[in-house]
Amino acid sequence: xxxxxxxxxxxxxxxxxxxxxxxxxxxxxxxxxxxxxxxxxxxxxxxxxxxxxxxxxxxxxxxxxxxxxxxxxxxxxxxxxxxxxxxxxxxxxxxxxxxxxxxxxxxxxxxxxxxxxxxxxxxxxxxxxxxxxxxxxxxxxxxxxxxxxxxxxxxxxxxxxxxxxxxxxxxxxxxxxxxxxxxxxxxxxxxxxxxxxxxxxxxxxxxxxxxxxxxxxxxxxxxxxxxxxxxxxxxxxxxxxxxxxxxxxxxxxxxxxxxxxxxxxxxxxxxxxxx
Length: 275
Description:
By secondary structure, the chain is mainly alpha-helical. It has one domain: Orthogonal Bundle (MetI-like fold). It is about 80% helix and about 0% strand. The chain is built from ten helices and no strands. Helix 2 packs across helix 10, helix 5 crosses helix 6 and helix 8 runs antiparallel to helix 10. The two termini are about 30 Å apart. About 0% of the residues have low confidence. It is found in: Cell membrane.
């Protein structure tokens, strides 16, 4: 007879899920590991110039050297600090304005044209203005990252609210929901899955903007490592910084995706066979 113990049942459920998560990670590593091994072999055979394109083993040695000198952690923490605050500011502003323009037509007519015009400005164009206003310290760097995060969050949330099924809104009005109840009980749950996608898009763009931000006179950070590698002719340092950007970006996206999955676990969405 099958056990009816809830603890045992829960363990049985978590086991396959954990195994599936591990399997997904392993499959996801197949391509990058395979490319790294192929790159290493081509470099060992002399097909690829190791002077301009160092093999993965040399990049790992560079990371090990930076870590042994105690500077790697400082660079990583400096970039994470800027990214954290830039993401929070940009996501908060994008959420507030996206919700306002999505819910209130007057706010949309008043704000959206200007925001759409600002969205067309290249990110690098903000750099001299931010330096002029705020100097070359941390404030302009954080603000530049916030600009990058803001627009995907704003556009996604405003669009998600505008695309909520009108029938759901009419049901809320039938039940005499006020504006706040309508937002809390209908618009927010309906827009949440798309909003989380917008947050992930803003996070990814924030990682792109952090490079431009750290070109603004930074003395620490992964962007500084890129510039330092370029100025001193060390491609291994450049590639090591790029690798760290990729790893940190992926880990932060995984964390945000996991949080989003918990928030929308009620959603019965499409899952392909084998997913």
